[in-house]
Write a structure and sequence with these properties.
237 residues; mainly alpha; two-stranded parallel ribbon; globular
């Protein structure tokens, strides 16, 4: 019995010692693995820090590629063609023109005490140039043409686009007075947008002609056609 007991104690001690050694070895290996893992991560980050990321550009060869060319045309080249008097279709004599304008008053031709808004001198100067080339000198007729152009902007392209660029800028408040030329133009534009051609004829009935009678409509349609097929725009010099 004593021998067996001694053997049992020895075996228990051996078993416990074996477990303890195994646990120590496992702990050591785990520590080494963690340490090596941390070192590996640091080395990986260091390599990433010293290396550039690759960038790739992909092209979808299945979709069509649209290459367009934008053509700019000086407005001074195109604008004279909008004047009906440069067309062979215009046959109205100077005498007939004077008779048509005989009923206009001095206020219709140029309102008294008229002035230009200082903040909009550039836009007003351009509008004066446009009307001079189009030979629309009477103020009441300038308003009527603006009104009718914005009543049907698609019909009067590219004139409507040209006028819009000058009459929709914001350089500060505009005095709502009839003596302000820029206000008269803005009011005429709004009248056309909201009331249509009928409102223009009623509001500016003292002007003896309509916009389509004064502008060279075939020339407008020609330039609109070119603009659509060639991606063309007008440059205002």
């Amino acid at each position: 019995m004593y021998f067996r007991a001694s053997n049992m104690d020895f075996l228990q001690r051996l078993f416990c010692t074996t477990i303890f050694v195994a646990w120590c070895a496992t702990s050591a290996l785990g520590t080494d693995d963690v340490s090596s893992s941390i070192d590996g991560d640091e080395n990986h980050k260091s390599q990433q820090a010293h290396s550039r990321q690759k960038r790739f550009i992909y092209f979808n060869t299945q979709s069509p590629v649209d290459i367009g060319l934008l053509i700019t045309v000086p407005l001074s080249f195109a604008l004279p063609t909008f004047n009906l008097q440069t067309s062979r279709r215009f046959s109205r004599s100077i005498t007939e023109e004077n008779e048509l304008l005989a009923n206009l008053t001095s206020e219709d031709i140029l309102p008294s005490e008229t002035y230009d808004e200082p903040s909009y001198n550039f836009e007003l100067g351009k509008m004066s140039t446009y009307f001079t080339i189009l030979q629309i000198d009477e103020d009441i007729c300038q308003q009527k043409v603006i009104c009718e152009v914005f009543a049907e902007p698609e019909k009067y392209k590219p004139v409507s686009d040209i006028f819009e660029k000058k009459l929709t800028v914001d350089r500060g408040p505009v005095a709502e007075k009839y003596s302000s030329r820029y206000y008269r133009y803005i009011k005429a534009m709004q009248e056309g947008v909201t009331g249509g051609e009928a409102a223009c004829q009623k509001e500016y009935k003292r002007c003896p002609y309509a916009a389509h009678e004064r502008l060279n409509m075939p020339a407008l349609h020609f330039w609109t056609y070119l603009t659509n097929i060639l991606r063309m725009e007008f440059r205002d010099e």
